[in-house]
Amino acid sequence: MSAATQNVYLPKPAVLERVVAEIPEVKTFYWHFEDDREQQEFHKFRPGQFAQISLFGVGEFPASLPSSPGEEETFFTIRKVGTCTQALDELQPGQKFAVRGPYGNGFPMEDYYGRNLVFVAGGIGMIPLRSCIVYALQHRKYYDRIQIFYGAKAPRELMYMPNLREWEHSAGVECYLTVDRPDASWTGNVGVVGSLFSKPGVSLAVDNSTVFVCGPPVMFRFVIRDLLAMGCEEKNIVSTLERYMKCGVGKCGHCCIGVAYVCVDGPVFTYQQIKKLGEEI
Ligand SMILES: Cc1cc2nc3c(=O)[nH]c(=O)nc-3n(C[C@H](O)[C@H](O)[C@H](O)COP(=O)(O)OP(=O)(O)OC[C@H]3O[C@@H](n4cnc5c(N)ncnc54)[C@H](O)[C@@H]3O)c2cc1C
Ligand code: FES
Predict the structure, then answer these.
(1) What is the pLDDT of residue 171?
(2) Which residues sit opposite 27 in a β-bridge?
C-alpha cells in the first residue's frame, strides 16, 4: 500500500514480550511489531512522542514512549486506571495487541545542543522524561551539564530504579532523588522535589539551560514557581500536556486547548506556550 493510501487509523499488530512491575499499579510492557519493517520505521521516533495502543475489542489509548530511539528494546510504562489499561495488564507474553504512531512533536533535542539539560520529574512524570535522559546520555558530548531531580511519594514509588542507580553513579550526570515519606531503608533526601534545589552542594543550572518539568499538577505549579524565582526563562522550561485523545492525528478535535491540538502541536510545549494557551495546570 502506498503512503498516500495508508489508513492513518490502522493499528499495526504487535506482540507482548515481557512485563516488569515498576511501582504499585504501574508496569513496563516490552513489545515489538510483528513486521520487522514496521519496527524499523517506528524506531525513528523522537523523545517525547507518543503512540496509540489498541486492545482488540476493548479500545485505544495514548501512551508516551519512555525508551530512547537509540535503545534496542521498545516498551511502554503504563498505570492501570481503566478499561484499556486493565486489558493491557491482563495480556500474557506472546499475546497480541496493536500500536499506531509515533505521534506528536516530541522534544527538539538537537535544538538544545550546547546547553545544560535539567530534568525535574515527579512520580510517573518520569515516563516521558526517561526517553530524553537516555537520549541525552547517548549524545553526551553535545550537552553541557545534565541534572536530574526526581521525587516520589515513597521509595517504593520511584520508577526505573536500575536506571536511577546508574545515573546516580554516572560521572556525566548529577542525579538527586527525594521522597515525601521515607521508609526505614531510605537514607536520601526527604521532601518535595523542589526541596532538592536548595540542598547544600546543589547548584541548579539556570543560565543556558533547558529545564524539562513533568509531574502531577501540584508539583508542576510549585516547581515552576521555584524555577522562575531562580531566574529560569519561561521559554526555556518545557513540559508535556495530557488531554483526552481519540484520533491522535489532528482530525477529531478531542484534544484541543484554545488554538492548539495537543496531539499534533504537542504534547511538548514550552511554559511560555502553555501560558499563552491559557492552560491552567
Ligand atoms: C500524550 C499522552 C501520553 C500518555 N502517556 C501515558 C503513559 O506513558 N502511561 C500511562 O499510564 N498513561 C499515559 N497517558 C494517560 C492514558 O492515556 C490514560 O490514562 C488512558 O485514558 C487510560 O485508558 P483506560 O481505558 O485504561 O482508562 P479510562 O477508562 O479512559 O479512564 C480511567 C480514569 O482515568 C481518567 N482519565 C483518563 N484519561 C485521562 C486524561 N487524559 N486526563 C485526566 N483523566 C483521565 C478517566 O476520567 C477515568 O477516571 C497518556 C496520555 C496522553 C494524552
Ligand atoms: S486527538 Fe483528535 S485532534 Fe487530537
Answers:
(1) 86
(2) 21, 78
